[in-house]
């Protein structure tokens, strides 16, 4: 918690790493005990590396993870239900993700605009907190800053990485352990409409 802002930890899985055109497959968010987690069938095919990393595969109109079918909703339902989840906190939300400025923020921004939901998004989201940048500021001398290596180092565990819900939950746990001072959080936070 930062003043009147609430931090919601998010992660998204997508068809590839090209933020200018990839499709969202899974979007998850956690705040304390509350969890949002939805899947959607992407409109474009996945890159081979995305298939390998996430375990997702797509067949016409259906999504599978490691061979098991996953329940999906349409992308606009996914986005509107995500906005409803964020609104339910009834105050401005800070969205935190690992490398949010490099990936999650540009993808979410572009897709929200595409479905004419960006004004609603701006109303509820006050900014993005990049935990990758934050971790480098908090711990300038450690070896790796990937989320997997940070979870190993600070929480002493391995987890189902690249499942958005697990990623978001682990990020929240890391943040609780770090208990970062406000000044470090502030300089790792970006406004929603900053150019990236």
From TrEMBL:
<dbReference type="GO" id="GO:0003676">
    <property type="term" value="F:nucleic acid binding"/>
</dbReference>
<keyword id="KW-0540">Nuclease</keyword>
<keyword id="KW-0460">Magnesium</keyword>
<dbReference type="InterPro" id="IPR036397">
    <property type="entry name" value="RNaseH_sf"/>
</dbReference>
<feature type="domain" description="Exonuclease">
    <location>
        <begin position="6"/>
        <end position="184"/>
    </location>
</feature>
<dbReference type="InterPro" id="IPR013520">
    <property type="entry name" value="Ribonucl_H"/>
</dbReference>
<dbReference type="InterPro" id="IPR012337">
    <property type="entry name" value="RNaseH-like_sf"/>
</dbReference>
<dbReference type="GO" id="GO:0006308">
    <property type="term" value="P:DNA catabolic process"/>
</dbReference>
<dbReference type="GO" id="GO:0046872">
    <property type="term" value="F:metal ion binding"/>
</dbReference>
<dbReference type="InterPro" id="IPR040393">
    <property type="entry name" value="TREX1/2"/>
</dbReference>
<keyword id="KW-0479">Metal-binding</keyword>
<protein>
    <recommendedName>
        <fullName>exodeoxyribonuclease III</fullName>
        <ecNumber>3.1.11.2</ecNumber>
    </recommendedName>
</protein>
<keyword id="KW-0378">Hydrolase</keyword>
<dbReference type="GO" id="GO:0005737">
    <property type="term" value="C:cytoplasm"/>
</dbReference>
<comment type="similarity">
    <text>Belongs to the exonuclease superfamily. TREX family.</text>
</comment>
<dbReference type="Pfam" id="PF00929">
    <property type="entry name" value="RNase_T"/>
</dbReference>
<dbReference type="GO" id="GO:0008311">
    <property type="term" value="F:double-stranded DNA 3'-5' DNA exonuclease activity"/>
</dbReference>
<keyword id="KW-0269">Exonuclease</keyword>
